[in-house]
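Two proteins were folded this term; both appear here.
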Amino acid sequence: MKLTTSFFFVILTTFFLLQINKVESADLIDKACGTARFKAYCEATLRSHPNSKNADLHGLAKISLQLAQGNATAIHDQVSKLLKTSTDKSIKPALKDCLKNYQDARDQLNAAMPALDSKQYFDVNSKATAAVNDAYSCESGFEKGKSPLSNFNTIFNRLCTIVLGVANRAAGH
């Protein structure tokens, strides 16, 4: 009987501790995204990443930066494909500019990672802001309504906004 009670106590305690960890993780994501411009998007994005469950604010900043890096690479690759396959000559110059813009965005975000590792959050924000500006430059190179990259640029801007918000929280702001 005593063994059963002890076993039950261990199971109950383990379950309780796991629940506390889930609540702390959820609260941390809420805190990380608390001042985000797109709060629901920030929370959904971070919650969808498998490593976010055990991450601290610095870890969440790293996750958000990795997501933005991956997205910049995917858009760069998409622009490269569009340059090769597009038959609309009127958008080719803008696509060439976008290819340069997203190469620069990738470079900026890649340079942000060592800054993040060193907890130089101001530098992370500077580089993420430069990457956002690259996406805006890309979008503005097209005539209104003609950009085949509008949705890509919007998602990229939102991911960079998450980097900015979470890095600010990790810095204590």
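Next, the second protein.
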Amino acid sequence: MSSSATEKAEVDALIAQLGSSQDDDRKASTNNNASGGDANSAGSERKRVQIRRNSGSNSNTQVVGSPTDIHGHLLQKNAKISKKYNRKSRQGKGRGLAKKGGGGGGYTWGALGSELLEEDNEDLDDDDLADLQYNQVKAKHIAESSKSSLENKFTKLELIESMDKDVKPLIDEYFANGDANDVAQCLRKFDFKQSGGGEFISYVVTRALEKSNVHKELISRLLHDLNGIILRSNDYINGFNSLLESLNDLSLDNPECSTDIGKFLARSVADKCIDNTGGKYFNQFKGNVKCSKMQAALDKAETLVSMGDFYFLNNVWNAQSSGFRPVRELADRMNIIIREYYDSGDSAETIRCLKELNVPHFFHEFVYELMDFCLEKNTERAQQLMISLLEPLTKSAVITYDQLKTGMLRLFDDIDDIQLDVPNVYDQLQTLLKQLEEKKILNQDITSNAPQKGRKRMTSEGESTKQVKE
């Protein structure tokens, strides 16, 4: 009885154990189905780590976990992997990618642009954030100011290009003929009320700064002649204000531009182009000028205007437009230069004064007057001074060969009239020509045209009677 009871208890225990094991198997299978992907991924990850650890081996032997083909041979790509040029992590960490996104290695800061990524940016405190905001505002202000300055530069560049295209030919022609009415007629097609005549004034004055005093005098006359016809008082004010503000740039090519701008300004005030009643034009600049060159130009103009000598201001350039003077006036001016040279003996100053006349096409008159003066003086000093002056003039081509020849031929033609005042003019002329030919100032082409003194043949009374009968 007892034995049967014991067996029954053992059977019940085995049945209960079998039921619990089946329940556990069902739960395990359910869990395995739910977490099968994770287990597979974890296993594949472990496999990759194992392969990566053994990938640096120099041996060709197969290792556990290495992928093989159907024949059991090790795959070729994993057959032999050298440590050289291998930038993957050897510690089994990471995803097998290059360090720092391909920007790793010694003395490197990471991949290009990595500083812009959010994950690489550090947290900023209040001070750093304030500095960052300040830098951003400053960069925006600089960008806006540079943009406006670039726009102004492009505008000025376009204006200069248009002036070079339209106005420059007119000014060059005006320098040649001095006809202000022609310039005024050509400028009527430009709408200065819309574009402003200040730019025109600034342009023509800038052109004149590069020229001689004769051209500056012509521009001063042009500004006076255009007043009330093409230009208005505001145009003169705007033009000269623009010139005063750009003196730093103009001084790079014209160091004396401050003085010249001051003279132009004073001349415009004297010609009533700018209203300076009670000194109101100059008073607006007092205490507001920071540029030394601008202050120098204003001081020069104010000094000239305060003198009150408007006749002097009309000749402020000390150079009339010589090409438009009467011939007699030019001849008188050349005679004055010759007499001053005879008194001083300074050939350099004489050449400078001759150049200032700016009439190279009329220098044959200077040659004629110089030779006539030397023949009238009839002294050794006059001859030496004449030779000493003609030699540098011809060698430097201040007086061209054509002008020299024309002047000498004119002298040869008038030699009979000169003989009335200088009886021995033929002898003097031959002596001068010989010295000039020795100095290579004259050549045979010119001296061969020199007149020869005629000789009267003495005849007897019988010969003269015979000639009369014949």
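The two ends are 211 Å apart (CA to CA). The first helix runs from residue 2 to 34. These notes refer to the second protein only.
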